[in-house]
Amino acid sequence: MTGTYRISASDIADQNAKALPALQEDYDALGRKLARSGNDIEVVTKAVAGFGVAIPSWGVGTGGTRFARFAGVGEPRNVLDKLEDCATIQKLTRATPTVSLHFPWDKNKDVHAVKQLGDELGLGFDAVNSNTFQDQAEQKHSYKFGSLTHTDAATRAQAVEHNLECIALGKVLGSKALTVWISDGSNFAGQQHFARALERYIESMKAIYAKLPDDWQVFIEHKMFEPAFYSTVISDWGTNYWAATQLGDKARCLVDLGHHAPNTNIEQIVARLIQFKKLGGFHFNDSKYGDDDLDAGSVNPFQLFLVFNELVDAADRGALDVAPAYMLDQSHNVTDPVESLMASAMELQRRYAQACLIDRARLEQAQAENDALMALDTLKAAFNTDVAPILGMARHRGGGAIDPLGVYRWSGYRRHKANERPAQAKQSAGIV
Ligand code: RM4
Ligand code: MN
Ligand code: MN
User: Fold this and answer.
1) pLDDT tens sequence across 98-137
2) Rounded Cα distance, 109 and 105, in Å
3) 151 vs 145: CA distance, rounded Å
4) CA-to-CA distance for 306 and 379, rounded, in angstroms?
5) pLDDT of 342 strictly over 70
6) Where is 84: in which H helix or E strand?
């Protein structure tokens, strides 16, 4: 059974009525300011209104570390509850029209019921994610030493089969992409033959690719470490690019911001993948040390802005052959996941809006003249612009909340869910 409490449109309208006069004033003032530098605020507001990022179903439950998980109240108990939370995020922010499911975590006895609830809630389904980094109870072969790259053919076949099942489930949901992240790798020098492991990967992925519907894409996600701590098979964007190239046009690279060494120039990787026509999508999050899965923009908002700078620049030049898939991939250990996901979605919109404000002619001129300071100043001028009124107006016009966090807390949504979803006895460590 799914919960019954839902924030109503009239709740949002009532709260918005109070906030609108101040928003209108700020919006008009910002519009005048932007006009002075040749920007039409309405163009940016429209762009923001059209921006959407998928919510990861695994993000609406409280995450954990490998030490412990401190469960929150009113947590979703199954995929249907998760959809309810995702719909709440979308209702308030209007920035998250789709959900990215992860199997078998999101397995339901009837996938059609999942699709039906999504339809009812106005949610679409983005990429489906496969999971061969854990063993499941009924599973024959263990993934302890790998899945798609395992030395044992039967284990590889089982992992391929799981990915095909994900495609089948995704077809029912209306998904158009499969995201594959494997944890395969090694923990000790010499444990794994680098070249042979990658060969086995390509062979397995070819079997998956062969069954990929024509209008689907497969996103390959690289990650430099964890849980394999010496080497991973798909360790970096170079390997990812090569693998995607081996497979064909429907295979593309997915950039999870947390999957690189600290201080890696991720925006340059994004630019390279765009140039090579292999950028598939993103898993947005932020990190201080590694795959921290912190809220997007919470550590390095400038980096996020620079990523959007590359995306907007490429879109302006007509260099984006396919629109990249935007997804969040975060783990919320100490916050209410709904709040974190709303804040993160809005953070992406903020950096996107700022990237739309970059004076590209000025930047180009500075680059041509090797005027490094003016180039940075041009970026900073956009980055330092407070675009909150644009975001608020885009939400208001789309039927969302001017102040999503405020309305969420005012509604007592979490309290309602605590009553509807009694705490479960089982407490697990780890991300789920
Ligand atoms: C991995 C990777 C995948 C996600 C899992 C839960 O580190 O980011 O995208 O599916 O975590
Ligand atoms: Mn990820
Ligand atoms: Mn990750």
Assistant:
1) 999 999 999 999 999 999 999 999 999 999 999 999 999 9
2) 12
3) 8
4) 9
5) yes
6) helix 79-93
Looking at ligand 1, which residue's alpha carbon is closest to its atom 9?
181
The whole model's pTM is what?
0.97
Q: Which two tokens stand for residue 203?
A: 């062979």
Cβ 403 under 6 angstroms from ligand 1:
no
Is the minimum distance from the CB of 130 to ligand 1 under 6 angstroms?
A: no
Would you call 254 helix, strand, or coil by DSSP? strand
Query: What does the block give as tokens for 236?
Result: 């970096």
At residue 296 the predicted structure's pLDDT band, cuts being 50, 70 and 90, is very high
Question: What pLDDT sits at residue 430?
Answer: 54
The CB of 336 under 6 Å from ligand 1? The reply is: no
